[in-house]
Amino acid sequence: MRVPSAISCAVVGYGAAFNQGRSHARQITETPGLDLVAICDVVAERAAAAEADFPGVRGFTDLGRLLAEVEPGLVAVVVPHHLHASTAIQCLQAGAHVVVEKPMAITVAECDAMIAAARAAARVLTVYHNRRWDGDFLTARGLIRDGVVGDVFQIEYYSGGYGRPGGGWRSDKAVSGGAFYDWGAHSVDWVLGLMDAPLRSVTGFFHKRLWHDVTNEDQVQAVLRFADNRVADVQQSHLSLGPKPRWRILGTRGAILDLGQRTGGQSRPCFSVRVPVSGYTAEFQVPFQEPLRDRFYPALVDHITGGRPLQVTAESARRVIAVLEGAERSAAGGQAVAIPYEEEFEHPHAR
After folding, report:
1. How crowded is residue 350: how many other Cβ atoms within 10 Å of its Cβ?
2. 0.90 surpassed by pTM
3. CA spacing 20 to 30 A to 100: which of 28, 53, 277, 285?
């Protein structure tokens, strides 16, 4: 039963990619204060499937018609990456608050246009960086903030394997933005949240050497230089038969490593933390916190209706795109690229 005071919501994009549209629709229906009323997909069969999956919800194939007839208060944009900016701006100009799936957009210029549209409409614009609530990130952030390993000066993050990148639009660079714009949007966001220092520049290394039947890169790497020469190294590869730890974090009084270890015969993953004690190296395991990804929409309701701080600001999500775009420019030019306007960015996970 619908609650009259709830915010009416729509989801744009109900395609098959990881069932993300359906996931957003489910989370909206499960969040007090939100009322799912419409779902849009350009493919009629998907719009019909959405109506079947969520009885009472109207299916549309035209976004303009949805906005005019339904006038939703909140729209979740779950479309291919190259359509994020135009779709979000259309919804903002129609008077809706907007949630955009990550990555925010493909270029910083698109992010700026989105932010300007949100300010002009006096609407909330946020990005679905739900993995800020992942267990490994929350655990690493807690260890760093508690000073367990001292002053952190180097962070390394790696994800990869050896195999052809997946097909579909996510491997089409013109649509996806490139290899970094999928999982890399998460890993760069994590690193920016862990290194509490202004970002100065990014150096990129991009490889296209083997998988020529898709246009995304085979391997991408961004080396981020922060104030006081702190550094982060983010790598993502489809050409790696030499695995590395997912996380390697160095501080002045210890290190945090993710070696795929398990705790006490249980299946719960953990970090290996190493610290010096009386001339020796002490090592202990810290289990990952439970993930809290479904906190995104309840926190958004608290912001819109109660004025609580917005958990994922558009400006912090824009910072991620500045790194991804800068890494590609650096790779093409063979030198580091400065990240402009860094002083304007708040620390993305300070709240």
Report:
1. 10
2. yes
3. 53
